[in-house]
Amino acid sequence: MAPTDTSAVERNRAIVISGPSGAGKSTILKRLFEEYPDKFGFSVSHTTRGPRGGEQHGKDYNFVTKEEFLDLVDQKGFIEHAQFGDNHYGTSIKAVNDIAEKGRICILDIEMEGVKQVANHPTFPRPRFLFLSPPSMEVLEQRLRSRATDKEEAILKRLKQAKNEMEFAKSAEAPHDKIVVNDDLDKAYKEAKEFIIGS
Ligand code: ADP
Ligand code: 5GP
Question: In which domain of life is the source organism classified (predicted)?
Fold first, then answer.
């Protein structure tokens, strides 16, 4: 496996967006990519979770088996990887290098264990970290339920994990440069965009 192409990556400092499942990360990123179709590259993660309706292999995720995932772990093919709920998720070195080679700014949508690994990575250039928060846990639960993509058991795991994400964001260890509360979508998008594109 090729090492991280640090020179190419450094020219375009990456952005990490994190926050509880259901906070609105995908919604905000979709808008951003529609408004700026050539500026960013979404880091397509590997996951062992199955595709949701409409999700495309190679665009939203690389959907792989647990065996394929663990093989790539053994090959040291990931910049970071973590387990979330019952599934594995990881950012491959290749996903990030592909974006750097196109001269685009890399955007990673990852959970907190991955955030910690990226923030403490020995070679990956430090990205800028954006945390997207729901207005409250009640609203988060409503959004997860009305999204209707997960079974009850998975929703409960996501809500439990959401508490950990919120606690982490408040802790001294958190690397976040900016926290945006996604209450009104237009307002949250504007704030996130200002952070991401710097104007
Ligand atoms: P994430 O990617 O963080 O898991 P999503 O982008 O899938 O979250 O958003 C979760 C659900 O909440 C989706 O159904 C989305 O349409 C909805 N949603 C996102 N932002 C808002 C908002 N500001 N107000 C109301 N609903 C929202
Ligand atoms: P979902 O199943 O809702 O798409 O994602 C669940 C969680 O996994 C989200 O918090 C998302 O940010 C996170 N995630 C997605 N890809 C990766 C990845 O490559 N690495 C890590 N650590 N988390 C990821």
Answer: Eukaryota
